[in-house]
Specification:
Layout: H1 2-29, E1 37-39, H2 49-60, E2 64-68, E3 71-75, E4 83-84, H3 86-94, H4 99-110, E5 118-120, E6 124-125, H5 128-142, E7 150-152, E8 157-159, E9 164-167, H6 169-181, E10 187-189, E11 192-195, H7 202-213, E12 219-226, E13 232-235, E14 241-242, H8 248-258, H9 265-276, H10 282-292, H11 297-310, E15 317-318, E16 349-351, H12 353-367, H13 372-376, H14 383-393, E17 411-418, E18 422-431, E19 434-443, H15 450-471
Parallel strand pairs: 1-5, 2-10
Antiparallel strand pairs: 2-3, 4-6, 7-8, 9-11, 12-13, 12-19, 14-16, 15-16, 17-18, 18-19
Helix pairs in contact: 2-3, 5-6, 7-15, 8-10, 9-10, 10-11, 12-14
């Protein structure tokens, strides 16, 4: 028994001699946080508890990067009241350094094994109201509504608009809080809901037309009406211009009003010469007014003017026949008495793009079996007559101006007019989204330059056609080749 006690004492002494120095080394090597213990998954150094807490805050109370699409926003923790309870976490971590944990880890140390350690979860808090307010501020700054397509004047095409993007505040808040809890990924993406870009709208089209018109060195005016929707674009369309051959349109309609179909052969021949001849025969137009006036051409001109007034075209008149030596009477209209734009319009005959464009639109509606012409003149103007009149104007051989901007196989009924200082064209075009009326007039003092006026009308016509193509998801027409738009025009 005596020897047994001695052996035990010797064993204890040997253990103290062997283990004592290692225990001292183990104790001296320990930091405030026991080896192998992490805080929120991170190895936090620090000789003291205060240093460990400071290190913890430097990791989790640093700013994060918030992404709203391509926009990069720095969010500082104090902006949303984000705070880490570092002291509580250090205290929890230090529990792994006492009691059975300490004995376990020391034994592992003796056998050169890593400590089992443990983890103190992140203890944090933030102000939810502040986070909500911050998110709302970013949404106000960076969210955007979808925008419609816009025109590229260099190619006369429409580019797609921007999609709309709206931040989901609830889902985004979760991502931000997760980013603050992460030690390595300090970024958060706001959850964005995307709405596709809008198709180009008529406001986009009007803006494009105005931009192109502004490049013309003179006075310009445009009227557009989309028959299926009734959408109208009016760009100074009440400006008075010389009527030229464009006012042959009310002459032709008056013929169909006064005479029943089928028309007399002579009248048919004069219509053909008025519309189909390369010179847009003034003599044939006078012959039609001669019939309208019951063998009096001047009376026929007055009748066409009165008819225009009945149609609501208050700025359209023919005071004397074409190429007449008569001195025209002074005819005052709202348009030619407006001092804003003065094109020095021909006192013999005048119109406005709005008047002549509306008349073309009415004829187009009549051809579809609807509109004011059929309602105002039942039995005198018929759907079939309007269709026949459109058929005549589709045979206009003039291939420049408005017609040049659309495909060769497009249906285009138009009546153009030339003067020394004025050019105009009014058309009914059957486009990708149905028919539309378009009237364009330009004026340059002294002489209207073809190399300005013709490309202008080509471009405006092409813009409108491509506007409808892109809305239909179809490939747009290519830009004109250099020099392609120039050329001599018919009279």
């Amino acid at each position: 028994m005596k020897y047994l006690r001695l052996l035990i004492l010797l064993a204890i002494a040997a253990a103290i001699v062997y283990i004592g120095p290692q225990l001292m080394d183990y104790v001296e090597s320990r930091d405030a946080i026991p080896a192998g213990v992490t805080l929120a998954g991170v190895n936090i150094g620090g000789a003291t508890a205060e240093e460990a807490a400071a290190n913890l805050r430097s990791v989790f109370e640093s700013p994060i990067l918030v992404l709203h699409g391509d926009n990069r926003i720095v969010l500082r923790p104090e902006e949303i009241g984000f705070k880490v309870d570092a002291e509580a976490m250090v205290e929890q971590a230090q529990k792994y350094g006492g009691g059975v944990y300490a004995v376990r880890d020391f034994l592992l140390y003796l056998f050169d094994q890593p400590p089992l350690g443990g983890d103190a979860p992140l203890i944090y808090d933030y102000d939810r109201d502040k986070l909500g307010a911050w998110l709302q501020a970013q949404a106000d700054a960076y969210d955007n509504d979808p925008t419609p397509g816009y025109a590229k004047l260099d190619t006369l095409t429409f580019a797609p608009g921007q999609p709309g993007r709206y931040a989901d505040l609830n889902e985004s808040a979760i991502n931000i809080v997760n980013a603050f809890q992460s030690s390595n990924d300090r970024s958060a993406k706001l959850v964005l809901h995307e709405i596709p870009a809008k198709l180009p709208d008529f406001e986009s089209l009007e803006a494009a037309l105005r931009q192109r018109l502004e490049k013309f060195p003179g006075i310009y005016s445009l009227y557009f009406q989309h028959l299926p929707t009734g959408e109208i674009i009016d760009i100074d369309a009440d400006t008075a211009f010389a009527g030229m051959s464009t006012v042959k349109l009310p002459i032709l309609l008056k013929v169909y009003h006064d005479y029943e179909s089928p028309l007399d052969d002579n009248i048919t021949r004069w219509i053909s010469e008025t519309v189909k001849s390369e010179t847009a025969s003034n003599a044939a137009a006078n012959a039609l007014m001669y019939h309208i006036g019951k063998r009096d051409t001047l009376a026929g001109a007055r009748a066409v003017t009165e008819f225009s007034r009945e149609l609501g075209l208050e700025n359209t008149f023919i005071a004397i026949p074409y190429d007449s030596d008569l001195k025209p009477p002074i005819v005052r209209t709202p348009a030619n008495t407006n001092p804003e734009y003065n094109t020095f319009p021909d006192p013999a005959m005048q119109t406005t793009p709005k008047d002549i464009g509306e008349l073309m639109a009415e004829i187009g509606q009549c051809a579809e079996g609807r509109g004011n012409l059929l309602a105002a003149y039942p039995g005198q103007i018929t759907q079939e007559e309007c269709q026949e009149l459109i058929g005549w104007m589709e045979q206009n051989p003039m291939g420049y101006l408005i017609k040049y901007g659309v495909p060769d196989d497009a249906r285009v009924a138009h009546k153009h007019g030339y003067g020394t200082d004025t050019q105009g064209d009014v058309a009914l075009i059957y486009g990708p989204e149905g028919p539309y009326a378009l009237a364009i007039f330009v004026y340059q003092q002294g002489w209207v330059v073809w190399d300005y006026s013709n490309p202008l009308m080509n471009d405006l016509s092409r813009l409108i056609w491509n506007f409808f193509l892109v809305r239909q998801g179809e490939e747009q027409l290519p830009p004109f080749e250099p020099g392609e738009q120039t050329g001599a025009g018919e009279n």
